Structure formats: C-alpha cells, structure tokens
Amino acid sequence: MIQIENLSKNYGSKTVLKQINFELEPGKVYGMVGENGAGKTTLFKCIAGLEPCSGSISSPYPILKNQLGFLPTNPYFLPKITGSEYLQLLCNARNIPLSNFAEKNIFDLPLSQYAETYSTGMKKKLALTGILLQKNDFFILDEPFNGVDIQSNMLITAIIERLKAAQKTILISSHIFSTLNDTCDQIYVLRGGEIAQKVEKQDFQQLDEEMRQFVLGDKVESFHF
Amino acid sequence: MYYYFILQQRILSRKMEALGLHPVLGYILGVLLFLGLSFYLFYKTTYAGYIYAATGLSLVLSFGEKERNDFLKTTFPLAIYRQVRAAENGLRVLPFVVLLCCKTEFLLALGLLLGALALSLFNSGSRLNMTILTPFFRFPFEFTTGFRKYWLLYLIAYFVAWKAIEVDNFNLGAGSLAFVCLLAMSHYALPENDYYVWMYNCTPRQFLLKKTATAWLYLSTLTLPLVVVLSLFFWDKNWILFLILGLGLFLIGAMILAKYSAYPREMSLPQALFFGLAMWFPPLLLIVMPLFYKRAVQQLNTYLQ
What we know:
The complex is a heterodimer. Chain A has helices at residues 40-48, 83-93, 120-133, 150-165, 177-183, 204-216; strands at 2-11, 14-24, 29-33, 54-58, 68-71, 138-142, 169-173, 186-191, 194-200.
C-alpha cells in the first residue's frame, strides 16, 4: 500500500497543495479530478519525486520511483530520437533487456520516425507503451485519454483493466468523466489544493451531477445566445 | 519586424543573466572572445578563411529549424517573414563577413553573405523529413541526437582527414580528430529534461558510470577509424593521435561530470570558465573532476534516490 501523509507544496508564498492525505492499494484504480490549476499535476509530480514537497510518502518499495511508471500530461521527447529509440532508452533506464519492439507496438505507431514529429495522441501512446514495457507496479497516468482517438481510448481502458487484474496500483486524472467512471474504483476530488471529497464507485453518477452543477451553474447563460 | 529583433536581444540578455553575467559585460566578452578566436585561427592555419566561412554558415543553419519557422510564418505576413529570415541570417554572419574583409578575403566574404541569404529561403527538415541512420541506437540519447544534428560536420571532419592524407599534412589530420572529439563533447553541453534522469533505476554513481561508459564507447566508435587510418599514413606520429584520443576520452568524462554538477541548470559562467581553463591545461582537471563528481552526485540524488 502506498500512503501519502500531510503532503504540502508551496511555490514561494503560494500554497498549491495543503496537507494531502490518501492511500492507494494494489489492484485498484484511483481517479483524481479537479479544475485546471487545482494541483493535480503538481500532486503527481510530488508523488513521483519530480517536485520537492513536505509530508511523507511511504510504500513497500525501497525507492518508490523505481517502480513507478509516470505518464505526464504532455510527454517530452528528445529531439531526433525515433519512437523505437525512445522505448529502448526507457528499457535501458530500468535494465529491461528488450530491443525488438515490433510485437509490443499495440498502438501501431511508426516507431522508425522521430518521436517529436508524432501527433499529440501518438506521443501519449508512445509514452504509455514505454512505461508499460518497464514492468512497473505503480502507475500515474496524467490525462491518458487526452488527444487520443476512440479506438486507442478503448485500448487504454482495456490496458488499465489488465493492470488492475495484475494487482498494479493506478492513479489517473482525466477531464473526461466517462473514462473515469469506466475504470476507477474510487475518485478523489481536488479543490484549491485540498482533497475535498472521496467518492466510491456507487456514487460516481451523483459526483458527475454535482460537478456539472458546480462547474456550469448559470455561467453559460451570461452569453445570451 | 523591429520588435521581433528587440525581443531577440532581450532573450539574449536574459540568457546571459541566467548564466550569472551582466549583459553589457557579456556583449564585451563576446566581442573580445570572437576577435581573439578569429585572430588565433588566422594565425594558426592557412585554411582559416574556409573554416571561418563554414563556421559562419553552420551557425545560420539553426535558424532554419522547422517549428521556429512555422511560428514565424503564422505570425508575420509572408513578405515580412522573408525579410526577418534574411535579416537574421545576414546579421549572424556579419561579424564573420567583416573580419574576412579585414583579412582581404573578399570573395569568401561575399560567398558567405550570399550563402547565408540563400539559406534563409530554406528550412531544415521541411523537405528531408527522413530518419538519419546512426550506429548509436543501442544506447540512445546524446550521441544519437548529436550525430543526427551535426552529421554534416562529422562528414566534413572525415573529409578533412582524407585531405590531410592526400596533401601529407599531419597537423590537419590531427586537427580533424580533435574536432570530432570536441563535437562529441558538445552533445553533453545542455541539461536534458528531468524526466530523462528521473526514470533511471540506479544510484547517481551508477548513472554517471553508465553515461561515461556510453560516451567512451561511442566516441571511440567515431574516432577509431580516423586514428587507425591516420596512424597508417603518419606512422611515426601515431602516438600523438592516441594522445588526442586519450585526451578526448578524458575530457568527455569531465564534461559529463561538469554538466551534472550544475544539473538541472546549465553550467554557470564561472563553472564553464573553470572547465574551459581546465581544457586548456588538462592537469587542472585532476583537481576539478573530484569536485565536479561530488557536486554531480548531490544534484542527481534529488532525482534518483
């Protein structure tokens, strides 16, 4: 089990995350929702160890990040590196002896082309393939469905189900509520840098309605179409 | 268009400030360094004019980068875009043109200026969007990227080495070998995105060893053909070639340590000056390298542990 206790993050005098507490169990999928700027990406980076923060993160692993597959919102690709070289680099980094990626290329990506020339969705799929090849136990997927076509969306959902069945721990953020509804066991609502709500699967529809009310209100009416 | 160049000047000043250097001092040092290196080059070799013109043109190539040009095309009307590209290419080679004129190399100066203006009509990678093959696919990153960016310069270095054999000029051959080593070192000059350090499953020491071992393997791959062929033709001086190779391997290791000692930032100016001084007088590296190593381990600990 991964335990996050009293995690806080400040940028100068601005507090981005306030005393975040939650637990992540193996074989479960967790969703993290919140408006833009709520702190989801910062929270993910703090858990990954890419951002310094206060509080504690405990796990059964000596070094959590060595078991973590992190898919950033906008994966960064080195210039002039092909898709297969990117996968090779990720495998080398975790000492995974693999060099033929043809049969692992489930998204049918053009692996011999430079990764920087890929479309947004293709970049996401390449980065996801990379962290899947690394055989991680814990996955943080920041907006995995963003910019991805419907077929790949279905494939990603199936992958998440397989990971769950293999007792992996998965933490996802998405702005597409239906994808969270399909995949998650629990959803955390992040608001103003705090966990405002923890919602179980049976209450997802109610959360969807509440968020719709909270976000929409009568804001659209102000346009007078 | 005028505001675009003001912004370029601001970006340059901010880069200098980020290096811990006052912009005014930076500009003065830049001019002095340029003049110093130029006169040194012309003093050292009779081929200086050609090397000089090639350097000027290679600097202009970076302006042809596709994404940058796509941005300019969407921002400016086509006529203004063409003017911007021509002006920035012209400005970049202007110091080279002036100095070539001072050295009475008028034809080369004219060729350089016209070449730079002609290059403003092309974007790199816009037509030739193909993957360049490299022998560095097994352990990708620095050499893979660097080779694909500067393959033309590597080719020129090999060509110069071949000419050195043809005209029986050992210094030219040794220079081309040293150039390959320096070019390879430049692949390690800039820090990578932190994800590409964070993802490694190893200690900082192991990480630095991996990086150094890969650099040594790939630098040897690039330089050994040169060393072997030049040794065959300049047998009595082959020890100098091996000395350059050894120094290259030593310096690329030092470069990796220097880079990660400042990570995730770029090397600061004092660090870069210190490193430059140590390159000039390599024994100094024996003092500097343990310091760089200690600092690099500290910096990498943040991402790897």
